[in-house]
Amino acid sequence: MIGRPDNVPARSPLAGRDCLTLYEFSPEEMRLLLDEAVRIKTLQKSRIPYRPLRGRTLAMVFQKPSNRTRVSFEVGMYQLGGHALHISPEEIQIGKRETPGDTGRVLARYIDAIMVRTFDHQELEELAAAADVPVVNGLSDTHHPCQALADLLTVREELGGVEEVSISYIGDGNNVAHSLAIACALTGAELTIAHPEGHAPDPEVVGLAAKLGAAPKLTQDPREAASGARVVYTDVWASMGQEAEAAERKKKFVPYQVNEELMDLAAEDAIFLHCLPAHRGEEVTAEVIDGPQSRVFDQAENRLHAQKALMYSLLG
Ligand code: CP
Ligand code: NVA
Questions:
Q1: What pLDDT is stored for residue 9 in this prediction?
Q2: Can you give the pLDDT at residue 82?
Q3: CB of 154 sitting under 6 A from ligand 2
């Protein structure tokens, strides 16, 4: 995003910005976003109509499947008085029919903001650099910032705050783990990531979290990570695009399954989170994800509230 029209007063310090990794935001801006999400959620729960985005349109470009991201963005824009346009993988085909930059430039002539779910994060950056409207990452191979916003909102609601809360992510050092690392560094939550050998988070992302003053603690021991944690978090062992590796990964990741034995090591009042979709019997047992400590459906609902706050702030 390059600028905003001169005649529209900015309501938010985030107006006109992109959200590709969360690293673009300061700790204060992250706190503002979470505050805004709480405010917007309260209005929604009180059934008070709130339509600040009347007449604004979001394009949602999907190169991968989705339930939560597609529905929560579309419903969220509608609830804010705006409109969202779903563009399926067969249509735009980022980087195939035209350059990502041309896609961004053209969409920006029709649309007020663009949400993209794609594979290659670099393509997303190219599209965002060319588009003169806010661009939001709806998941790339390396980042899932909207998920992390909802995750931290859930932790704040469930545990009364995020600062110094110990969060243990057990599993693949993937897009979800990366965004969680940045979000934790921005909010002061203390993240430990337990991963199998060869599946650590990208050192570049760990470096970004370190620059924010809080690199996640890395270990290959899931029991060590879970011990005393207030939040235990996991994700699928093979992400979208890694289907060919699924069988191989399954063998390697078995010791990283979140089951009752692992949850017993966590704090007594620990909660369990998962970005979903989940594979019961693989990264998490049914007893845990369907059990009393699980907050995964509150977490999924919070995608709606967190993204409404984000869209309101970027389009403010
Ligand atoms: N967690 C998440 O992004 O879910 P979807 O893939 O269904 O959008
Ligand atoms: N890591 C998963 C997250 C899905 C929401 C994936 O990229 O498939």
A1: 52
A2: 98
A3: no
Q: Which two tokens stand for residue 138?
A: 């709806």
Angle at 205 between CA 67 and CA 95, to 5 degrees: 55
This prediction has a pTM of 0.96
Q: Which residues pair with 57 in a beta bridge?
A: 83
Kindly list the protein residues whose Cβ atom lies closer than 6 A to any atom of ligand 1.
66-69, 139, 147, 275-277
Residue 3: per-residue pLDDT: 43
Instruction: List, in order, residues 6 or more apart from 11 with CB less than 8 Å away.
Output: 316
Number of folded domains that form the chain:
2
Tell which residue, 251, 253, 242, 248, has the closest CA to residue 170.
253
Enumerate residue ranges in the chain where pLDDT < 50. 1-5, 7-8
Question: pLDDT digit string (tens) for 110-140?
Answer: 999 999 999 999 999 999 999 999 999 999 9
* CATH number of 90's domain: 3.40.50.1370
Give CA–CA dist 143/20, Å, rounded: 8
Ligand 1 midpoint to CA 295 (Å): 16
**Candidates 303, 304, 307: which one to mutate for ligand 1, based on the most atoms within 8 Å of Cβ?**
303
- List helix spans (H) across 245-295: 246-253, 260-263, 286-289
Same domain, 113 and 237: no
Domain that holds residue 252: 146-299
Whole-angstrom distance, CA of residue 178 vs CA of residue 176: 5
Condensed to tens digits (0 to 9), the pLDDT of residues 217-240 reads 999 999 999 999 999 999 999 999
Token digits of residue 209: 């979290």
Q: Using an 8 Å Cβ cutoff, are 108 and 119 in contact? A: no
3-state secondary structure of 84: strand
| 3-state DSSP percent of the chain in helix, strand and coil, to 5 | 45, 15, 45
- Check whether residue 163 and residue 190 sit in a common domain: yes
Three-class secondary structure of residue 272 per DSSP: strand
Q: How far apart are CA 132 and CA 3, in angstroms?
A: 7
Strand, coil or helix: 60 = strand
Tokens representing 98 are: 């035209």
